[in-house]
Design goal:
Layout lengths: L2 H31 L5 H21 L10 H24 L5 H8 L1 H5 L22 H14 L4 H24 L5 H12 L8 H9 L2 H9 L7 H11 L2 H13 L1 H4 L14 H16 L4 H18 L9 H11 L4 H8 L6
Helix pairs in contact: 1-2, 1-3, 1-15, 1-17, 2-3, 3-6, 3-10, 4-7, 7-8, 7-10, 8-9, 9-12, 12-14, 12-15, 14-16, 15-16, 15-17
């Protein structure tokens, strides 16, 4: 299957299967969010659901993996992403997030992926408002129900445990550290965990862990009842850190202006200049594309789709982003104009 056929396949499956699921799930979850009594938390919950439209377009690259059950994968990945986006929105708006509170609410991701046997707990125990009227627990249970239906979850379980542990650690450090200690804390943490990834910097390791795409990839692959451990290991070893890193670098570039004065961390701030940022994303693209076996043809298509989704966003033509967008299109290689023509009509908001 050629790259262009893959691109057309993505567009058709996204438009006919995935996007309708997005709209249906947002409508369903909005009903739960609207019942939250706290005005601020209710606003955060609804804001998170609105953000999910674009984020889930990005996550939809799972469509391209062979033998993925697309409706089931869309359902479980959306349910998982809804929790991540809700927690991120809460933490981004909170002026003070204690380590105890962060560990507690992010433990919901373990419950949602059925890797913790404890009964669900009151996640907002340490939050000033004390409660979101059970909204997070609802999200967790919705996701957990989908995870329990995955035919190959036992095969991906250990990988999810490993990545989720790193992902939660990073979120706790990211949101509990003040602006003066955050950089040092993240650097020290990544020093411990990134020793096997000597060709990327500490910040690039952090941004690769910070991307939920690796976890979403694992959940998607688990919809394939014939998934083997050998196949999973091959895909996983090639996916991380490159694809997740590309996604997070693109997100950072798109949100550069928005995060200048917010509490949200933007890892691309650690690149000393625009040229190095551009050079490094090109390097990530080359590393993700360097192997020539079949799955890497899928990766090449995934990378190009990610590039198109980000560089066609309205923010991509604001200020210096316009220049970077042109560089990113060139980085995608030959045929990007055709990709752009095919994908520009998909709904991302």
């Amino acid at each position: 299957m050629s790259d262009f056929i893959n691109c057309i396949y993505f567009k058709n499956k996204y438009s006919k299967i995935v996007y309708p699921i997005i709209i249906r799930k947002i409508s369903e979850y909005s009903k739960y969010a609207s019942k939250i009594k706290s005005r601020s938390i209710r606003a955060y919950a609804l804001e998170a659901l609105e953000k999910n439209k674009f984020d889930f377009t990005v996550s939809s690259v799972f469509i391209l993996y062979p033998h993925v059950d697309i409706p089931l994968a869309a359902d479980v990945v959306f349910s998982f992403q809804a929790i991540i986006q809700y927690l991120d929105t809460i933490c981004s708006h909170s002026s003070e997030s204690s380590e105890a509170f962060l560990k507690l609410i992010f433990s919901s991701l373990k419950d949602a992926t059925n890797i913790r046997s404890d009964d669900f707990i009151k996640y907002f125990t340490f939050f000033p408002s004390k409660d979101d009227d059970g909204y997070l627990s609802i999200l967790v249970e919705k996701c957990r129900q989908r995870v329990l239906s995955l035919p190959s979850f036992d095969i991906v379980r250990d990988y999810i445990v490993a990545y989720l542990s790193l992902f939660i650690d990073l979120q706790v450090i990211k949101y509990s550290s003040d602006q003066y200690n955050r950089e040092l804390n993240l650097h020290n943490w990544s020093d411990v965990h990134s020793q096997n990834y000597t060709d990327i910097s500490n910040w690039e390791y952090c941004l690769s862990i910070d991307s939920p795409l690796t976890l979403q990839m694992l959940l998607s692959l688990a919809t394939n009842p014939d998934l083997t451990e050998i196949e999973l290991e091959r895909i996983n070893n090639s996916f991380f850190p490159w694809i997740g890193g590309i996604q997070k670098i693109l997100e950072g570039y798109l949100n550069y202006n928005d995060t200048l004065f917010s509490r949200s961390i933007n890892h691309i701030f650690y690149y000393p200049n625009l040229k190095e940022f551009e050079d490094r994303i090109i390097y990530f693209i080359e590393k993700a594309s360097e192997n020539k076996v079949a799955i890497f043809k899928t990766y090449r298509c995934i990378i190009r789709i990610l590039l198109i989704i980000y560089v066609t966003h309205p923010k991509a033509i604001i200020g210096m982003n316009r220049i970077t967008s042109k560089v990113l299109l060139r980085a995608g290689g030959r045929g990007m104009f055709v990709y752009n023509s095919i994908l520009k009509a998909i709904k991302t908001d």
